[in-house]
Amino acid sequence: MSTNRVQVTIYQQEYTLKGEAPEERIRRLASLVDSRMWDLAQRYPRATAQQLAILAALHFAEELEKLSQEHERALGLLEKAWARQEEAGKGKEPEP
């Protein structure tokens, strides 16, 4: 797999990012970080760029944790549904 080098701007700072992801994805992720930092800068006008980056990282971590919990709950519901379906299927003759 090839490594892409992508020039992006995050919170008025230029970065060259390298990764195996497609260039469009790298740009989209950088744009999400940039946008989150600008949103936080509106709420915390005296925060430094480093503080805003840490706040953005914490916000993304919180979102990731919530999504992971939702994913685990959904898997649990699927497992229960599969177990009920298996239980309901016991004792039936297999169809030809």
The unreliable regions are none
Structural class based on helices, strands and sheet pairing = alpha+beta
Provide the number of structural domains: 1
- What form results from the Cα inertia axes? elongated
- Give me the count of strands: 2
- SSE string, helix = H, strand = E? EEHH
Instruction: For the largest sheet, list the strands in their spatial order.
Output: 1-2
Mean pLDDT, to the nearest integer, reads: 94
How many angstroms does the end-to-end distance come to? 47 Å
- Portion of residues in beta strands equals 5-15%
Number of helices: 2
- Relative helix content: 55-70%
What report would you give on this structure?
The chain is of the alpha+beta class. The protein has one domain (4-89). The chain contains two helices and two strands. It has a two-stranded antiparallel ribbon. Strand 1 and strand 2 form a beta hairpin. Helix 1 crosses helix 2. The radius of gyration is 22 Å and the shape is elongated. 6% of the residues are buried. The mean pLDDT is 94.
Task: Give a concise summary.
By secondary structure, the protein is α+β, with helices and mostly antiparallel strands. 65% of the residues lie in helices and 15% in strands.
Question: How is the secondary structure organized here?
Answer:
Layout: E1 4-10, E2 13-19, H1 23-43, H2 49-89
Name some characteristics of this structure:
two-stranded antiparallel sheet; alpha+beta; 2 strands; 96 residues; elongated
